[in-house]
TrEMBL record:
Keywords: Cell membrane, Membrane, Molybdenum, Transmembrane, Transmembrane helix, Transport
Keyword Membrane: yes
Its biological purpose: Part of the binding-protein-dependent transport system for molybdenum; probably responsible for the translocation of the substrate across the membrane.
Family membership noted in the UniProt record: Belongs to the binding-protein-dependent transport system permease family. CysTW subfamily.
Membrane topology: Multi-pass membrane protein
Protein name: Molybdenum transport system permease
InterPro entries reported in the protein's UniProt record: MetI-like, MetI-like_sf, ModB_ABC
Spans traversing the lipid bilayer: 12-31, 43-68, 88-106, 134-155, 195-216
Subcellular location as annotated: Cell membrane
Coiled coil: none
Domain spans labelled ABC transmembrane type-1: 9-217
């Protein structure tokens, strides 16, 4: 197959991997922090963290444009520091994928940490373990199934991101045109055989990812 066929697939996997790493790290940290802690405003904060799960992708894309656009403080700061805006770049696609995938990782990690027996963690503290040791050697191993499942689901969600990416990163071949965007363009141009090829690839990857989640939980 031509390079034009593999380019969107390669780009999708690269973006999903980078956003997946970001989501796994942030999801674990937020999940652990929120798991067994009660404070004023927790319900509001958790609702905000999970909001991208239910918001339309176009709304997420619009908000990203407002936050990172040329008229925003953050957008101007990024432009000054990197000498170019973040919109319509590879990193814009990563940001969009990260935002939509984060809730899945956060919820899975939080559920996993909530299932960890506090007595085991406290026993480690009594034996002299520091908080970072309890976190890395007790909490994470005991919540590992949920963390791995959340990571796989987040990667799969990032791989299939469309709406927010289109609005915030654009549809630039070889730069921001991921497989979902390429499928959309192929259908629009009437190239159904090419669209079907990409669709089959995406179904195959997604099927394997979901199958691995079920195998982990089995």
């Amino acid at each position: 197959m031509s390079t034009d066929f593999w380019s969107p697939l390669k780009l999708s996997v690269e973006i999903a991997l980078v956003s997946g790493i970001i989501v796994i790290v942030t999801g674990i940290l937020f999940g652990k922090w929120m798991a067994k802690r009660n404070f004023k405003g927790k319900l509001f904060l958790e609702t905000v963290l999970l909001l991208p799960l239910v918001l339309p992708p176009t709304v997420i894309g619009f908000l990203l444009i407002i936050i990172f656009g040329k008229n925003s403080v953050l957008g101007n700061l990024i432009t000054w520091f990197f000498n170019q805006p973040v919109m319509f770049t590879w990193w814009a696609a990563v940001i969009a994928s990260t935002v939509v995938a984060f809730p899945l990782m956060y919820q899975s990690a939080k559920t996993g940490f909530e299932s960890v027996d506090e007595d085991i963690e406290n026993a480690a503290r009594v034996d002299g373990a520091k908080e970072w040791q309890v976190f890395f050697f007790i909490s994470i191993p005991l919540a590992l199934k949920s963390i791995v499942s959340g990571g796989i689901l987040s990667f799969t969600r990032a791989l299939g991101e469309f709406g927010a990416t289109l609005m915030f990163a654009g549809n630039l071949p070889g730069k921001t045109q991921t497989t979902p965007l390429a499928i959309y363009m192929a259908i629009g141009s009437g190239n159904m055989s090419l669209a079907w090829s990409w669709v089959i690839c995406m179904i195959g990857i997604s099927f394997l990812m979901l199958l691995s989640v079920h195998l982990i939980k089995a």
